[in-house]
Amino acid sequence: MPVQHLIDTYKAFGFGDPTGLGLTGESAGLMPQRRYWASWIARLSLSATA
C-alpha cells in the first residue's frame, strides 16, 4: 500500500484531529510525518515476509 494512501485513510477516520466533543484539555493527536511512515512501512513489509 502506498504510504500516502495509508496516511490519507487515517486522516479520513479523524486520526490526528480533536474529537470535537468539547472535552476540557483536549488536543489534536499526533500524526507522524511521511518520512516516518515510509520507514515504518518498509520494516512492517519486511517482518510480514520473513
From TrEMBL:
Enzyme type, top EC level: transferase
Keyword Transferase: yes
Entry EC number(s): 2.4.1.129
Keyword Transferase in annotation: yes
Matches recorded under InterPro entries: Beta-lactam/transpept-like, PCN-bd_Tpept
Signal peptide (UniProt feature, chain positions): none
Domain of life per record: Bacteria
GO MF annotation list: glycosyltransferase activity; penicillin binding
Alphabetical list of Gene3D superfamilies matching this protein: DD-peptidase/beta-lactamase superfamily
Span of domain Penicillin-binding protein transpeptidase: 2-41
Keyword tags: Glycosyltransferase, Transferase
SUPFAM superfamilies linked to this entry: beta-lactamase/transpeptidase-like (SSF56601)
Record protein name field: Peptidoglycan synthase FtsI
